[in-house]
Design goal:
- The protein is of the alpha/beta class.
- The protein has helices at residues 16-27, 39-49, 64-78, 101-129, 150-169, 202-213; strands at 7-10, 31-36, 54-58, 83-86, 132-137, 175-182, 223-226.
- It has a seven-stranded parallel sheet, sandwiched between helices.
- The longest helix is centred in the middle third of the chain and has 29 residues, at 101-129.
- It is an enzyme of class 1 (oxidoreductase).
Length: 229
């Protein structure tokens, strides 16, 4: 499937995996809106992407109304939304015994509610048109819980479950759903995490996204797990 002229939103697209996904989408000819909560990082990403087919909008995906504005402004600029990438995420203090309630709330609001809000604002139009693709960035932490990752893993398991249920809800509508579960990726989010393996590059995850998006329209790639060797 050719992505030329398609319109995509990539939340958390101002750095790391999100920026890499936005780059690959631009390379494939798509119009792309990137989001983030830092205006400075958004402007830096916009310069790096260096394309007239990119829009940068400051957005906190945990805020329902801000996500609605994101969708509305993207439609005003580029037209109907074909691809929605739920990539924005937080990984904070996750041990239950540490009792960092504020970190838990932030992760739940961004990693779970952020996905639901995004889907809510695009799925009706996608169903009406009979086409569209929702990508949720989850994590291998949705499959393997450690003593350091309890709450974070819980939010990513929720993200994975949302994708699994949504795929069934949207069966036979023409709207596809894919969950991408990255292993350790060399981004700011994981810069303090030690690993005995070479970390993945953000572009490796972006390539997995493009793979899912460019399958024939009768093929729904439900889940991809990408790990370091």
């Amino acid at each position: 499937m050719n992505l030329t002229g398609k319109t995509a939103i990539v939340t958390g697209g101002n750095g790391g995996i999100g920026l890499a996904i936005a780059k690959r989408l631009v390379e494939e000819g798509a119009n792309v809106t990137i989001t983030g909560r830092s205006e400075d990082k958004l402007q830096s990403a916009l310069k790096e992407l260096n394309s007239d087919h990119v829009l940068a909008l400051k957005t906190d995906v945990s805020k329902f109304d801000e996500v609605k504005q994101l969708v509305d402004k993207t439609k005003e600029k580029f037209g109907e939304i074909d691809i929605y990438v739920n990539n924005a995420g937080l990984m904070k203090s996750s041990r239950v015994t540490d009792g960092d309630v504020k970190s838990w709330d932030n992760m739940i609001d961004t990693n779970i509610k952020g996905i639901l809000y995004g889907v809510h604002h695009v799925v009706s139009d996608m169903k009406e048109r009979g086409s569209g693709h929702i990508i949720n960035t989850t994590s291998v932490s949705a499959h393997e819980v450690t003593k350091q990752s309890t709450v974070y893993s819980a939010t990513k398991i929720a993200a994975l479950t949302i994708g699994q249920g949504l795929e069934k809800e949207l069966a036979h509508t023409g709207v596809r759903v894919t969950s991408i579960s990255p292993g350790m990726v060399d981004t700011r989010l994981a810069e303090n995490v030690k690993s005995d393996r070479k970390k993945l590059e953000a572009r490796d995850i972006a390539n997995a996204v493009i793979y899912a998006l460019t399958q024939p329209d009768y093929v729904n790639v439900n889940e991809i797990i990408v790990r370091p060797v």
